[in-house]
Every structure is written in C-alpha cells, then in structure tokens.
Amino acid sequence: MKQLTEIFADNLKYLRKKAGYTQRELADIIGYSEKAISKWESATAIPPAETLYSIAQVFRTTMDSMLERAEEPLYYAGIDGGGTKTLFALADATGKVLSTVTLGPCNPMTVGFEAMLKIIGEGLEKLCAGISPRRVSVFAGIAGVVPDVNADILHKYLLSLGYGVVKIGNDTENVVAAALGDSDGIAVIMGTGSNMFTKRGEVLRQYGGYGYLFDQGGNGYSIARDAMSAVLADENNYGPHTMLTEIFKKENGCNLSSMMPDLYSRGNRYIASFARLVDIAYDSGDPVAADIFDRNMKHTATLINYAIVDFEGETVNAYFVGGLTKRSDVFFPLIEKHLAGRKKVNLIVYEHEPVLGALRLSGAPIDTSVGNGIVRGEKT
What we know:
About 45% of the residues are buried. The protein folds into three domains: about 5-65, lambda repressor-like DNA-binding domains (434 Repressor (Amino-terminal Domain), Orthogonal Bundle), CATH 1.10.260; about 75-170 and about 355-360, Nucleotidyltransferase, domain 5 (2-Layer Sandwich); about 180-350, 2-Layer Sandwich (Nucleotidyltransferase, domain 5), CATH 3.30.420.40. The chain is elongated. The protein contains 16 helices and ten strands. The chain is α/β, with parallel strands linked by helices.
C-alpha cells in the first residue's frame, strides 16, 4: 500500500497538470518555492496542514481528497440538461440511485454559457454534497453542447471543480443510452423539437433532429406552428374555420394576427408552448386540429419507415421520449396508420427520465429499463 506522501504526490501532480499549472506557477500561487513543489511531487516530503488546506482551495477540493487514493470512481453523476429543465442524478458503485436534483434550463444556446456553467456547478454541488469530487465520474449530456465545437468549455469547467472523470455529450445521447441500453432499436424524441436514432450493434444513425428551421414535423413547435398558420388563414378568410381561432383568442385576449411582433421576437420555444391548445381543439372534435396531428405523426412515421430498413424485416422496438408522449393514446394510432409493415414496429413510451442514460454513460452499472425510482413527470 502506498505511503501517505506517495498518495499526496500522485494527487498533487494529477491536479496541477489537470489545471494547467507549472510547478513554478503553483508555487507562486501558494507562496512557496518551485523546489518545495518538486519535493512534494517526488514524495520526499508533505506540506503542513495549513499549506495543504491552501492547496486544496486552489484546486477546489478538500484536504481529505488530497490524501485519498482515488483509482476507481466510487460514485457516478449523470446530468440531463435541456431547454426546460436540468436533472442531476447520483448513483453508487452498485448502480443504486442515491439522490436527484432538478434545476432550470441550461441549453447554452438559449441561456448562455455562463448561466449553463452556473446551473451545472450548483446542481453538482448539491448532488455530491459531502463527497470528494475526485471520487465522482460525471457524464453531462446537455442540449446545445456539441463535441469539437463547444463541449471543451464545459469539460474544462468540470475538471477545474476536481471531478475524477468527466465526459461531455449531448442530451440525445442520454435518451439513446436510457431507452435502448445494450439493445438494438429506435429512440424517438418528441418534445419541443424532435429527433430519432436507430441503434444496431455499434452503428448509430440519426434521422432528423436538425432544429426547427429544417425538421418538418412530429414535435411541439411544428404542431403549434401549423395551428397558428391555420388560425391566420381562418382570421383572414383564406382557409377553413377552426375552433383553434377562438381558443387562441381566449388564451391571448386578441387575434393571432396582432401577435406577430411578439411571436417573432420570442422565438421557437414560445411558439411551441401553444401546442397544448391544439389538444383542446382536437378533444373538442375540430377537424383542422385532427389534420394537424395526422400530418405531424405522418412525418414521424416516414422517418421510422426509412429507419426500419436497417433492421432487415426484424420486429423493432421504438421507444418514445418527450412531452408529446403524454398524448400517445392519440399519436401512436396515427403513426401506426402511416407505417409500412405495421406489425414490425412496437411503439413504446419510455417511462423513465433520460438522466438514467447519463448515469449509464458516466460508467454506472445501471439498468435503465427498471428506472431506479426515476419516473418522468414525478418531482425529484
């Protein structure tokens, strides 16, 4: 077993290099000589307690962690961040979920990078209270974070907080890892936006998911946009009458035509928030609302029809995640109507939070099909 001086030497060298400091730079920060740093890193001496505390402060860790032998993570943290909320989950080495934290949205494309880092730092601090960061492996799957583009900002930030292992990805990776795990199949995201992936062996393919400017349907934004187009046509006498016109007017206190400046300035997420009004019109028997739902689910079915070619006639499980799955009673029959070879695809709502996929990607030995107590829609 290593002596305490050797453990401290390994930890100091690891943290210093991870932070990007030379021995001289660290020496200047804590008021010691470069020679002293060299002695500590060569395990020939160990600093006094007050200096050990100062070093721990520099690396945003604890004195205990500086003296711990951390070869394997003891805890795993998963982060699922999007445009609506950010969910954090902590699991132990057996895969048992110990705690969760829910904070606001952290997509850097909408809240900014500074706000994203603040939310993620705050959430991890709450999640891992009392645990040495060196003992935690983190996977952060965040909407708006793209490898080789901006992921390094978050990666460097989490390393600076002292976490032992840090991996960065996108929130869609959480969904695929959660819904499919080790199995082949299809993962469909139907929320404000939409995305679809197929997994067959080691091959992962994406269908759609390029944002509201390019995706054609199957999401909250498309449904709300189509509804607004129908209302504008009704209000200006170039389309059929629809209950949506009265519903939108009651909701907003004015005709939709007068809301154009507000709609353009507040963007796609604001527009998507009105998709719930199409539910009301559909449940009231409005044929225009029914047509909007049908067109949007036909688009989802079209993507699945392309995707199932990869499975060569096998029966495929397609797991659905996102806010629109609340109306699976309506949407699944519409999708099935437009599927080629309907019996070859099983449409299934994934009932658990995608943060389980983030835990899996952090290295936790977790069974995402069980849910481990994390069910979508429940308070955490």
